[in-house]
Amino acid sequence: MKSENENKNKQFNVPLGYFESFEERLLIELKFQKLFPNNNDGFLVPEHYFSHVEQAILDQNKPQGKLVRYNFKTILSSVAAIAAVLLVLFYVVNPIEKEMQFDSLSITSLESYFEEEDRIQDYFSAEELSTIQDNTSIFDDQSVSEDLIYEYVDQDIIQNTLDGQ
Amino acid sequence: MNHLEAHTLQPLKFEDLVSQYKERLYWHIRRMVISHDDADDVLQNTFIKVYKNLHNFNGESQIYTWLYRIATNESLTFIKKRKRTTQIGSEELQESLVANLTSDPYFNGDEAQLTLQKAIDTLPAKQKQVFVMKYFDELQYNEISEILDTSEGALKASYHHAVKKITEYVTAH
């Protein structure tokens, strides 16, 4: 049968393990109180310190006496502004070249690209390669006509398109 | 009327705040940074920050807890800066500060109080803060809760652990 107190307090709860740990917590607190009966920490201040420090604080914070202290935001914004000006100047003095177009590429550059990187096999069939090798270079004739380029590059595409129609 | 509530009903005057709270804030700071000279620097920095931000104080918290929070943050910032400057670990630094108390002209504690300071310095930062605020500054848990933004339950547990560790340390030494 439950005790009368238990029945009366059934609407209240306590943290888990509260009563089990209560004695231990009480003993620790009593032991501590016995070791340190008052909360004097032994620290002292120089004579008249508090009246002097009050005056010093008020003097430092007078409205007309501005404090010169590092302001990280101000420094950061100044540095950012200088950097922006330098960046603009750099691009004015050394303008970036316009975006490269196929027309602006020299024949030599294209030749080097394919030959040095050994990419030519990725772009041409074996039959075309044998033709190229026979003629030493596809770009020897620098006055290649537009029709010839179309014939080379889009031959299959045009044919497929025509076949499709 | 509680002194903590006095300033919420009238415009805050900086001079009054300095006059009323300088000592309590000093002792809180002193127990964190140990030396008087450092506490003096941090106290002045605290009030400079208060002066600059007084217009931002919205009265949602009590003025004293607001001041206390600034003082706590300034003390922690100071300790971190000092750690960077001296290039030694914070624990090592605290140990040397406590060891120097014996020759400090502004410390007159007996052997028990010196041991207590050494014991406090073995505590983790958060436990140390809670212990100092509760035991020395005699703040209520609800006030500490507001200053440290921690639940009262967690603060009570923290304080109990601190007392237990200090008692064990003092008994062993």
UniProtKB/TrEMBL annotation, chain A:
Residue ranges crossing the lipid bilayer per the database entry: 74-93
Tree of life domain: Bacteria
Record key words, sorted: Membrane, Transmembrane, Transmembrane helix
Identification of the protein by name: Uncharacterized protein
Organism: Leeuwenhoekiella blandensis (strain CECT 7118 / CCUG 51940 / KCTC 22103 / MED217)
Automatic annotation (TrEMBL), chain B:
Record key words, sorted: DNA-binding, Sigma factor, Transcription, Transcription regulation
GO molecular function: DNA binding; sigma factor activity
GO biological process, one term: DNA-templated transcription initiation
Record-linked InterPro entries: RNA_pol_sigma-70-like, RNA_pol_sigma-70_dom, RNA_pol_sigma70_ECF_CS, RNA_pol_sigma70_r2, RNA_pol_sigma70_r4_t2, RNA_pol_sigma_r2, RNA_pol_sigma_r3/r4-like, WH-like_DNA-bd_sf
Domain RNA polymerase sigma factor 70 region 4 type stretches: 115-166
Pfam families: Sigma70_r2, Sigma70_r4_2
Domain named RNA polymerase sigma-70 region: residues: 17-85
Domain of life according to the entry: Bacteria
PANTHER family: RNA POLYMERASE ECF-TYPE SIGMA FACTO, RNA POLYMERASE SIGMA FACTOR
Family stated for the protein in its record: Belongs to the sigma-70 factor family. ECF subfamily.
Name of protein: RNA polymerase sigma factor
